[in-house]
From TrEMBL:
It comes from the Bacteria. Gene3D superfamilies: YVTN repeat-like/Quinoprotein amine dehydrogenase (2.130.10.10). This is 6-phosphogluconolactonase (Cycloisomerase 2 family). InterPro entries: WD40/YVTN_repeat-like_dom_sf. The lineage of its organism: Bacteria, Pseudomonadati, Acidobacteriota, Terriglobia, Terriglobales.
Length: 54
C-alpha cells in the first residue's frame, strides 16, 4: 500500500496496488481523518506516478 499527503497537507491518499483502489481522506485540524471515498478498477501496477500519468 502506498500513502501520500497532498502538498497543502489537507488530504491523504492511499493506493492498494493489489486491489487497484485509491482512497481519499481529509486530514482534520486535530489530525483525525474523514473518509471521502474511493475509486477502484485502476490497473494493479499503478502507483502515484502512474496515476499522475493517467
Amino acid at each position: 500500500m502506498d500513502i501520500a499527503v497532498s502538498v497543502n497537507g489537507k488530504y491523504l491518499y492511499t493506493i492498494n496496488s493489489q486491489s487497484g483502489n485509491v482512497s481519499t481522506f481529509a486530514i482534520n485540524e486535530d489530525g483525525s481523518l474523514t473518509n471521502l471515498g474511493q475509486a477502484g478498477n485502476l490497473p494493479k501496477s499503478v502507483g502515484f506516478n502512474g496515476i499522475a500519468a493517467l
